[in-house]
Amino acid sequence: MNDCLFCKIVAKEISSEGVYEDEDTYAFLDINPLHPGHTLVVPKVHSKNILEISEESYKDVAKTARLVAKAVKEALNADGVNVHMNNEAASGQVVFHTHVHIIPRYKNDGFVNWQKTNPTKEEISKAGEKIKKLL
Ligand code: 5GP
Ligand code: ZN
C-alpha cells in the first residue's frame, strides 16, 4: 500500500491538481486527460478496485463522482460526461487504487467508448443467466 501512487497523492506526498475533497474522497485532474477537465475520484482509504472496495467506501466515491460529474459538465460547457472505471489490468486498470474517471465529452469529439463485438443472442442470454445465478 505504501507504494501506491494514489495513496501518495491523497496524502499530498505527490502533488496533484485537486478540484474537490471531503473526509472520505479526493478528486483531482488526470495528468494525461482525454480532454481537459478529465478528473479522477478516489477514496482516501486504499482499496484496489470495485471488486475489493467496501460498500460504504464505494458509496462515498459514487457520491463525489455524481457531484464532480455535474460540475465538470457545467464548468466546461460539455455536451455529456463519461463516468468510467477500469477494474483489473484486462480492463485497462493501470493504477491499482480504486478510481472513477469523470470525462467531459463533446458532440462529434471523435471518440468511441468501445467497439462492438456482435455476439449472438444466445451468447448474450447465456452470460445473463450466469450473472443472475450469482446475484
Ligand atoms: P486507469 O487506466 O488505471 O483506469 O487510469 C489511471 C489514470 O491515472 C490514467 O488516466 C493516468 O493518466 C492517471 N495518472 C497516472 N499517474 C498519474 C499522476 O501521477 N497524477 C495524476 N494526476 N494522474 C495520473
Ligand atoms: Zn492506494
Q: Could you walk me through the main structural features you see in this protein, from its secondary elements to its overall organization?
A:
- With 135 residues, the protein is an alpha+beta fold.
- It has one domain (5-134): 2-Layer Sandwich (HIT family, subunit A).
- The chain is built from three helices and five strands.
- It has helices at 5-10, 55-75, 121-133, and strands at residues 18-21, 25-29, 39-43, 80-84, 100-105.
- The chain has a five-stranded antiparallel beta sheet with strand order 1-2-3-5-4, with helices on one face.
- The protein is globular and about 50 Å long.
- The two termini are 30 Å apart.
- The mean pLDDT is 97.
- It binds guanosine-5'-monophosphate and zinc ion.
- Guanosine-5'-monophosphate binds at residues 5, 16, 28-32, 40, 86, 92-95.
